Amino acid sequence: MSSSKSVPLTLFSFFFSVFLHAANAAGPLNHFCFNPENYTAKSPFGANLNTLFNRLSVQVPPSGFGFVSTGKNYNKVNGLALCRGDVLTTNCKTCVVDASKELRNLCPYNKGAIIWYDNCLLKYSDTYFFGQIDNQNKIYLWNGIKVENPEEFNPKVKELLSSLSYKASTTTKLYATGDLELGAQKKLYGLAQCTRDLSSDNCKKCLDGAISELPNCCAGERGGRIVGGSCNVRFELYPIVSSNA
């Protein structure tokens, strides 16, 4: 089992098994209100947070990623949003707007929070976190149905995702998808993506770290993913995105 630095204790209350076909629903996958400090209603911090959400809803959709800081000193807010690499601009905007609304409801007056959807993630904090790998905010999702041959299947998952880790870290979007032939007209599909505030080296480090944790949740599963604050990896026995380009 991973250390508390990689998998925070608060995470264990959020462990759950899902059929990932249902992850296409509009609702969030999960969220954390990770900062013990709060701000008050109508405070400068709250006003800056609203400004940050508005800026992200404009900045993110055209390219699928954006990060913003608003305010100064103790009232400064830092935030980013990332949409999955294949998500259309309009759907990206909808996801970012929905994420900001949900965080207001789920983490009222909290100075640091993160939320994940199938199409996007959104994170904000009163501390500066850009360019740093987030190892604290992380969730595991798995299919709930086991494969018949895990001894053969698990190495294939690692092989595919490791190749996508390298591919993603060397692209400008820090995003990659691909597939691997399993024989008998079966394919394994994978995805790897990082937030674009990370360097190429830190992206690969983040993805490789996530891949190394897959046995903790997803060994022998037909599908699974590790979704974090800086990167995510996913594998399935069906196409994950509209195109594997």
Explain what this protein looks like in three dimensions.
The chain is an alpha+beta fold and 245 residues long. The protein folds into 2 domains: 33-130, Gnk2 domain, C-X8-C-X2-C motif (Killer Toxin P4, Chain A), CATH 3.30.430.20; 139-236, Killer Toxin P4, Chain A (2-Layer Sandwich), CATH 3.30.430.20. Helices cover 31% and strands 25% of the residues. It contains 4 helices and 10 strands. The protein has helices at 44-63, 89-106, 150-169, 200-217, and strands at residues 30-32, 65-70, 77-83, 112-116, 120-125, 138-142, 175-183, 186-194, 224-228, 231-236. The protein has a 5-stranded antiparallel β-sheet, with helices on one face. A 5-stranded antiparallel β-sheet has the order 6-9-10-8-7, covered by helices on one side. Helix 1 runs antiparallel to helix 2 (89-106) and helix 3 (150-169) packs antiparallel against helix 4 (200-217). The longest helix is centred in the first third of the chain and has 20 residues, at 44-63. The chain starts with 29 loop residues before the first strand and ends in a 9-residue tail after the last strand. The model is unreliable at 1-25 (pLDDT under 50).
